[in-house]
Amino acid sequence: MAVLVETSLGTIVFDLYCEEKPRTCMNFIKLCKMKHFNFCLFHCVQKNLVAQSGDPSGTGRGGWSFFRYLYGEQAKFFDAEKKPKISHSRKGLISMVDNGAGQHGSQFFITLSDDLNYLDDKHTVFGYVAEGIDFIHKINEVYCDKDGRPFRNVRIHHTFVLDDPFVDIKRIDYPSSPALMNISALDTRLEEDEELDNTEELSPTRLEELKAEEEIKTHTQLLTLIGDLPNADVKPPNNVLFVCKLNPVTTSEDLEIIFSRFGEIKSCEVIRDKRTNASLQYAFIEFEKEADCEDAYFKMDKVVIDDRRIHVDFSQSVAREWQLYRKDKFVPGQHKIVPKHSESGDAKHHHPPRLSEGHTDKRKHIRQNSHSYEHKKKINSPKRRCSPPLLGEGYDLVISEESDSSSSSCSQRKSKKTHTGSLGAKQAGNACTTYV
């Protein structure tokens, strides 16, 4: 007792009053099985009133009942079932269209508003919309001409009978789903998958702009797919300024003091090289309010700071948004760096001497040299001692916040080196001076 209807505006499910209106419901269900409603238009839509369909010709003057297949043209219409009376009291009700003589064929309508009781005398309610109420809101908002015909066609694509309480008549051959028709050749109005071609009225400049916009959309989607952007709709913040052409001596504190007169600043950073810490001569300034950011943009462009005429523009960087995205989600192509741990007892790796307990977390290694037995022989050889060693050769440099521990460690190493050098000099018969 239910029928699923696929339309160009969505899918809806009709529940039918088969017990109250058996003849009308049988007519509708069997017509659905005959694929009578496939490709039918909603040829008349009256806002906040009704949406009418069921005519294969799309004119509102056609259609016939299922009984025509049984008894011929004399049964093209059948008499309306007036009792029991079901009122058009709410939207979403399904009712048969009267042909003017108290009879029905195949045309039906869906109510788009409540309290349409004045339709009770002519039309017969036989069901209601059980699912897909969004369809009613969508079709109620379509644009129509003065006759109620939508400018963009709204069609029934397919009907599926979910439950049929009526016995099928054996002499009727119910067809399979018909092949897809070229409905655009039958009607000059726009279909659901068609768009107006307005390019003929546009100037060449506007056409180039539209083409560029489409290319930007395509590139944005591509960058999103390969993981260079968190999503296609990401946009740079409106409260961040980009400042370039700075003097290398200009610092973040200097810029913050200069730009703070326009409003409160959340952050100000001169970008520097990670290795040398030298200024890259550009910066980002984030304001608390967008209005302050706009004010600074208009007043600070081409201003001289530290003998350099700077350039100010709105930031186009989404680096901060990308970093926030990476914290929450895994980014394609991103790999975690897992530190390698040396095996215990490996003679090839010599770690620098440990500091006392409590200071190991503060230590930072700058360079670590490992010397094998053969390398030590070269250092102590007479030929090697004849030339002054390089400054710092043979030492491990360790930086620590504890100056006493660092000084003690370096002194012990220096004493050890001096002893080794002196011993080598004595063995060579004081042939040359040893530098330590």
From TrEMBL:
Major location (coarse): nucleus
User: What's in the GO CC field?
Assistant: nucleus
Q: Which SUPFAM superfamilies match?
A: Cyclophilin-like, RNA-binding domain, RBD
Catalyses which reaction? [protein]-peptidylproline (omega=180) = [protein]-peptidylproline (omega=0)
Key word Amino-acid biosynthesis present: no
Coiled coil ranges:
none
Which stretches make up the PPIase cyclophilin-type domain?
6-161
Q: Please note every region of biased composition (Basic residues).
A: 361-386
Sequence segments annotated as region (Disordered): 336-390, 402-436
What is the E.C. number? 5.2.1.8
Q: Where does it reside?
A: Nucleus
Q: Which SMART domains match?
A: RRM
The molecular function terms in GO held by this entry are: peptidyl-prolyl cis-trans isomerase activity; RNA binding
Keyword annotations for this protein, in alphabetical order, are: Isomerase, Nucleus, RNA-binding, Rotamase
Question: Which Pfam family name is an example for this entry?
Answer: RRM_1
The UniProt function text for this chain reads: PPIases accelerate the folding of proteins. It catalyzes the cis-trans isomerization of proline imidic peptide bonds in oligopeptides.
Into which family does the record put it? Answer: Belongs to the cyclophilin-type PPIase family. PPIL4 subfamily.
Q: Which PANTHER family match?
A: PEPTIDYL-PROLYL CIS-TRANS ISOMERASE-LIKE 4
Stated name of the protein: Peptidyl-prolyl cis-trans isomerase
Species name: Trichobilharzia regenti (Nasal bird schistosome)
Classification lineage: Eukaryota, Metazoa, Spiralia, Lophotrochozoa, Platyhelminthes
